[in-house]
Specification:
Rossmann fold, 8-stranded mixed β-sheet, 43% helix
Length: 275
């Protein structure tokens, strides 16, 4: 059985994945933002058969909390077989974090970069990194001169940008960690009925609630590809891919520009260092 660190574990597909992984008997470190929800998913995972389940609390909207939880993870486990970067949200109005970054960009992208690089030495050869992306990455654009989105804020475009960053990072790390024999992949969970879009503008909330939600898949279904990439023998040698329903799919034209990923890494490191 594996030692698995899962962020965004207290709700939605993260919670569903935690319980599915617990049923397989894995040792789990579950990270979430809400203390009561973290306690709830830890109890559910233990009841499902998870070993030595640890629950930790961190809000990725504050990079100091990401650094703290990285240190707590290092204190809880000696090694990590699988790191699942699933923490994510969308801010429906433009918000700037205490670290000075646009909030969706920080929570969905910068936080996972900081956490992954703080823990990478604990991941041995044969280890895996899984990143929750989205088909929304196809509408994402990266303007490094306007990372705060001063020129205009649209919440779906901010979300799409963060998901483009997720795909770019998966591809970058897959290349970067080849010699370490660590595989890295991203995936789209499908259109899932979760709370991530709560707080959307009223018209969008109405459309989602009355017209769209009936066609959305369950969190359990949305978590299937995450669990497959994390633990299946079939995914053990796969790296640098983007998956939907356990099948590799093409990414957007921008996501295929490796030089863009290299620049994103450099800019991200600078933003993290300055926080």
């Amino acid at each position: 059985m594996s030692t698995i660190v899962l962020t965004g574990a207290s709700d939605g597909i993260g919670r569903a994945a935690a319980i599915a992984l617990a049923r397989e008997g894995h040792q789990l470190v579950l990270v979430g933002r809400n203390p009561s929800k973290v306690a709830d998913v830890v109890a559910a995972a233990e009841a499902a058969g998870g070993r030595d389940v640890v629950g930790l609390v961190a809000d990725f909207a504050e990079l100091a909390q990401v650094r703290r939880v990285a240190a707590e993870i290092r204190g809880a486990v000696a090694s990590i077989d699988v790191l699942i970067n699933n923490a994510g949200t969308v801010f429906h109005t433009r918000e700037i974090t205490v670290d000075g970054n646009e909030a969706t960009f920080q929570v969905n992208h910068l936080g996972s970069v900081l956490l992954t690089e703080a823990l990478i030495d604990l991941i041995p050869a044969g280890g895996r990194i899984v990143i929750t992306a989205s088909s929304g990455h196809t509408v994402g654009k990266l303007d490094f001169s306007d990372l705060l989105l001063d020129k205009g804020y649209q919440y779906f475009m901010a979300y799409g940008r963060s998901k483009l960053c997720n795909v770019l990072m998966a591809r970058y790390w897959a290349r970067e960690f080849t010699e370490r024999q660590i595989v890295v992949n991203s995936f789209h969970p499908g259109a899932v009925s979760t709370s991530i879009w709560s707080g959307a503008p009223k018209i969008a909330e109405f459309v989602i609630d009355t017209l769209v939600r009936r066609f959305l898949r369950s969190s359990e279904k949305g978590a299937e590809t995450m669990v497959w990439l994390a633990t299946s023998d079939a995914a053990a040698g796969l790296s640098g891919g983007y998956y939907i329903d356990c099948v590799e799919k093409p990414v957007s034209k921008l996501a295929r520009v490796d030089e863009l990923g290299v620049k994103l890494v450099a800019v991200s490191h600078e933003l993290i260092a300055n926080a």
